[in-house]
UniProtKB/TrEMBL annotation, chain A:
GO function terms (MF aspect): 2 iron, 2 sulfur cluster binding; metal ion binding; oxidoreductase activity
Domain 2Fe-2S ferredoxin-type, chain residue ranges per copy: 1-76
Name of this protein: Putative oxidoreductase (Aldehyde oxidase/Xanthine dehydrogenase-like) subunit alpha [2Fe-2S]-binding subunit
SUPFAM superfamilies: 2Fe-2S ferredoxin-like, CO dehydrogenase ISP C-domain like
Cross-referenced InterPro entries: 2Fe-2S-bd (IPR002888), 2Fe-2S-bd_dom_sf (IPR036884), 2Fe-2S_ferredoxin-like_sf (IPR036010), 2Fe-2S_ferredoxin-type (IPR001041), 2Fe2S_fd_BS (IPR006058), Beta-grasp_dom_sf (IPR012675), Diverse_Oxidoreductases (IPR051452)
Keywords, sorted A to Z: 2Fe-2S, Iron, Iron-sulfur, Metal-binding, Oxidoreductase, Plasmid
UniProtKB/TrEMBL annotation, chain B:
SMART domains referenced in this protein's UniProt entry, alphabetically: Ald_Xan_dh_C
Keywords: Membrane, Transmembrane, Transmembrane helix
Domain Aldehyde oxidase/xanthine dehydrogenase a/b hammerhead: 209-288
Domain of life of the organism encoding this protein: Bacteria
InterPro entries, per database record: Ald_Oxase/Xan_DH_a/b (IPR000674), Ald_Oxase/Xan_DH_a/b_sf (IPR036856), AldOxase/xan_DH_MoCoBD1 (IPR008274), AldOxase/xan_DH_MoCoBD2 (IPR046867), AldOxase/xan_DH_Mopterin-bd_sf (IPR037165), N-heterocyclic_Hydroxylase (IPR052516), OxRdtase_Mopterin-bd_su_IorB (IPR012368), TAT_signal (IPR006311)
The protein's name in its UniProt record: Isoquinoline 1-oxidoreductase
Protein species of origin: Pseudorhizobium halotolerans
Residues passing through the membrane, by range: 12-35
Length: 155, 714
């Protein structure tokens, strides 16, 4: 399978076709961003963006990804410059344990990429399925609003 | 066995009947209790924690793990403040058992209280050592020198950089100098110190970019394979035999390993591991088919007589009637950390190396040393950042499994629990049942307070204690169960007593331990009493608090001011509830919740909290802890209960177990009060008031006391 991983052309070996994308990203490509939380798509910690859409990478067999563009947390920043989402996450001091934040950031990124003017209801609908046990929800909400404002200015 | 001989048995194990004082040295896995007691760190330990290294970087070795509670950034701030340098000169390393003297576990919201002042002392000693060395090199008196951002200065010009000072061997600290050092931490709040500054969590850049390994799962070793434990389906069940013939054809399958009751499986890839696990044909004996209702029956105190452990019995009870007599139930609940337990084990050169997110690296080290017949020094534990602790990582579990499989298959092994393992093989917050009877006069003076409760175990958990220790401790009050059950309120007569019940489900420490449930019960009862007496819940509390609890009074008055309590609506579908509490006689919090009844259930519309954990090292991280506790209160009040059916925990994933989500969490207002000159703890404080503030608001809407958690239907 040939994929675009964070804008770079990569090949997934054929013998990994049945392996969930999450494990291919973590164990074959050595990425740390996407996390294992449940393995059945119930928490969102493994979220990556596939062809512009937030997807739970624990549910996607690698064999289904031929020709797709995959964006992970690692691919958000351009060189040393952090993406507005990453900057906002730091400015609002969102993470506690930090383990779920990959899923929070990637889900919010996909939401605003698709709907730059997403409102409170859209945000709740997209983010309610991405669990955070530390209780950072109020800060996640503020960080999304902040990133939205930054991205509006950049446009 | 008679009481006396049981006492002797306990004594032989190094436990006293009055409580835990010493750990049973050299005991095996099954015999070591959770949260094994260990001596506090000393100034001589602290001398090993901090140094100036070649290159001019400061190194601070933390004894406490990072699980999002913010201790790492807090300790860096303490050290930087004391040294008078910028934070980014200090590299902090998480606990590594090969680098630091034996230290306590990261529990009980004690990390800053116990280690903050010692880090300050050690940093102060290092400050003197640097100035002395600089004075020697420059031939100037120490009194003429000071530490500035990049080195030592005479107040006019920078004379020696840290890099120049650190050429040669690292600049270390002597134990005796730490003991006599006089840190400036407590007196100096001039705005220039790193102490008191709001700063995000340690390693935040790595968290939001994924650019380097932080958590156990980010560790990848050469030749590493993946392992899982084949577990019985039910609690108390036993695996008779396993047929792996279908599994063994899965590409990547390595083998099935059996050793006594232990059955494990190994594969080269995680997808293959999951597939092979599914294809095993397992013959097993099931444990007793208990359900939630059976556990509830074991705990029911509604008609119970005297409880075994009397915590407090004082004053003349008199014979008048009680104004309230309520029975309150708290269900089993999960930690539900998003990161599942994960450990990597590698046997190398006669030793064992482990990477894991544990709250107690030395417990892991000693347990594994005993299990594999190694010296403690031959086992090295690297504590990785934990993806949510909350008390769950206090036992040794995935670490032992990974090491066992590593030994059996001869390769480094990573064991990562499945979500199903987390729910079904982990331990949980014990369910409890409370009967509170109380009477007051028309002015709100409490005449009688009578609280008896039953709970599953917390400290004496069956998740870490074998039948021997369970039996030995069976008449010792579990200190985790009783935590926080003595009411702060003055009454003419107070009786508090409990029993811990050995339940057919594993229970143990969960954020706040008994204090979370006990406070919910007490704060529910005091509100019910106020309601019966027609008194304002705030006025009733303030009147009943004795002078020694003036810090609790202060946060109550503060939060009432923040929320506009005196102007709150007196009727309708949107009401306020109030609660307060003290955690471990050190930290104080009061919360107010505004709750709305909707067609879809109750919604928390706003939360206010006033909080006093003494000197605040990092207000941003303290606020984060308070926010987390308040969200856990939402979970306790409105969402969480872990069901048991057919002898097994029912949920297998988060579809089956509700935790609070983004739209459950309202705007949160927090005020920090600094009621003492030393820092205490914030990790488990606000949970003592968050839950009852919400359910008391629900009770204000319905006019009926909430008797059972969680409140589900409007």
């Amino acid at each position: 399978m040939r994929i675009l991983l964070n804008t770079k052309a990569e090949t997934i070996p054929d013998d990994l076709a049945e392996e969930p994308l999450l494990f291919v990203l973590r164990d074959h490509f050595g990425l740390n961003g996407p996390k294992f939380g449940c393995g059945v798509g119930s928490c969102g910690a493994c979220t990556v963006v596939v062809d512009g859409e937030a997807q739970r990478s624990c549910l996607l067999p690698a064999g289904s990804l031929d020709g797709k563009a995959i964006l992970t947390l690692e691919g958000l920043s351009a060189g040393a410059k952090l993406h507005p989402f990453q900057q906002s996450w730091i400015a609002e001091s969102v993470p506690q344990c930090g383990y779920c934040q990959n899923g929070q950031i990637m889900t919010a990124y996909a939401l605003l990429a698709a709907r730059p003017e997403a409102g409170a209801d859209d945000i709740a609908e997209a983010m309610d399925g991405v669990l955070c046990r530390c209780g950072t929800q109020a800060r996640i909400h503020k960080a999304i609003i902040r990133a939205q404002a930054m991205m509006r200015e950049e446009r | 066995m008679a009481d006396l001989s049981r006492r002797r048995f306990l004594k032989a194990l190094g436990w006293s009947a009055a409580g835990i004082t010493v750990v049973a040295g050299g005991a095996t896995f099954a015999l070591i209790p959770v949260l094994p007691p260990r001596n506090r760190s000393t100034p001589s330990d602290a001398a090993a924690w901090i140094s100036l290294r070649p290159g001019g970087r400061f190194r601070l070795l933390s004894t406490r793990v990072e699980m999002g509670q913010g201790i790492s950034i807090g300790l860096r701030q303490v050290a930087a403040g004391e040294l008078g340098i910028e934070l980014d000169h200090i590299d902090l390393e998480l606990p590594d058992t090969a680098l630091i003297p034996v230290a306590r576990s990261t529990v009980g919201s004690d990390a800053m209280r116990e280690t903050g002042p010692l880090v300050a002392q050690a940093a102060a000693a290092l400050r003197s050592a640097i100035l002395n060395k600089a004075a020697e090199r420059l031939g100037r008196p120490v009194s003429a020198l000071e530490i500035v951002a990049d080195g030592v200065s005479d107040g006019i010009a920078s004379l020696l950089t840290f890099e120049a000072l650190a050429s040669g061997p690292p600049l270390l600290v002597k134990a005796e100098d730490v003991g006599t050092a006089r840190p400036r931490l407590m007196e100096r709040r001039d705005g220039h110190s790193a102490v008191g500054r709001p700063i995000p969590t340690h390693d935040i850049e790595a968290i939001v970019t994924g650019n380097r390994p932080l958590y156990a799962d980010d560790i990848r070793l050469d030749g590493m394979v993946f392992g899982a434990v084949v577990r019985p389906r039910t609690i108390g069940g036993q695996i008779r035999s396993v047929d792996a013939s279908a599994a063994s054809v899965v590409p990547g399958y390595v083998g099935l390993y059996r050793e006594g009751d232990f059955v494990g499986i190994v594969a080269t890839r995680r997808g293959a591991l999951a597939q092979a696990l599914d294809l095993l044909s397992i013959d097993e004996d099931n444990g007793p088919p208990n359900a939630t209702a059976d556990v509830d029956t074991m705990l029911d105190v509604a008609d119970a007589g005297q409880m075994e452990h009397v915590m407090l019995d004082e004053g003349e009870a008199g014979r008048g009637p009680f104004d309230i007599d309520i029975t309150l139930s708290v269900p089993l609940a999960a930690h539900a950390s998003i990161e599942p337990r994960t450990a990597i084990a590698r046997f190398v050169d006669g030793g064992l190396e482990i990477w894991t997110g544990t709250q107690d690296p030395f417990f892991v080290r000693d347990t594994l040393a005993a299990a594999f017949g190694l010296s403690r020094e031959a086992v090295r534990v690297h504590a990785m950042r934990i993806g949510g602790g909350f008390g769950a990582r206090t036992i040794v579990a995935a670490e032992l499994e990974a090491a066992r499989l590593a030994r059996l298959c001869g390769r480094p092994v990573k064991v990562q629990w499945s979500r199903r393992d987390e729910f079904q093989a982990g331990f949980h917050r014990p369910p409890s049942c409370h009967r509170i009877r109380a009477a007051a006069d028309g002015t709100g003076r409490i005449l009688r307070w009578h609280h008896m409760f039953r709970s599953g175990h917390v400290i004496f958990t069956s998740a870490a204690m074998g039948p021997g220790l369970q039996f030995a401790t069976s008449f010792v009050p579990d200190p985790g169960v009783g935590r926080g059950a003595i009411p702060p309120y003055r009454a003419d007569a107070t009786h508090v007593a409990f029993e811990d019940v050995r339940l057919p489900v594993k229970t143990g420490p969960w954020r706040g331990l008994g204090a979370a449930a006990n406070h919910w019960a007490m704060e529910t009862a005091i509100d019910a009493l106020a309601r019966v007496k027609g008194l304002d819940p705030l006025a009733m509390r303030l009147a009943a608090l004795p002078p020694e609890h003036k810090r609790l009074k202060a946060v109550l008055e503060e939060v009432a001011d923040m929320a506009g309590w005196s102007d709150r609506p007196g009727s309708g579908e949107e009401r306020m509830g109030l609660a307060c509490g003290i955690y471990k006689d050190m930290s104080y919090a009061a919360a107010i919740a505004r709750v709305i009844r909707t067609d879809g259930g109750y919604k928390v519309a706003r939360l206010w909290c006033a909080h006093d954990c003494g000197l605040v090292i990092n207000p941003d991280q303290v606020r984060a802890q308070i926010e987390g506790n308040l969200v856990w209160g939402i979970g306790m009040a409105l969402r969480e209960a872990l069901a048991i059916d057919g002898g097994a925990i029912t949920p297998e994933n988060f579809f089956d177990y509700a935790v609070p989500v983004l739209s459950d969490v309202p705007d949160i207002d927090i005020r920090l009060v600094e009621g003492s000159a030393a820092p205490t703890g914030a990790g488990e404080t606000a949970i003592v008031c968050a839950t009852a503030a919400i359910t008391n608001a629900v009770a204000a809407i319905t006019g009926e006391t909430v008797m059972r958690l969680p409140v589900s239907v409007a």
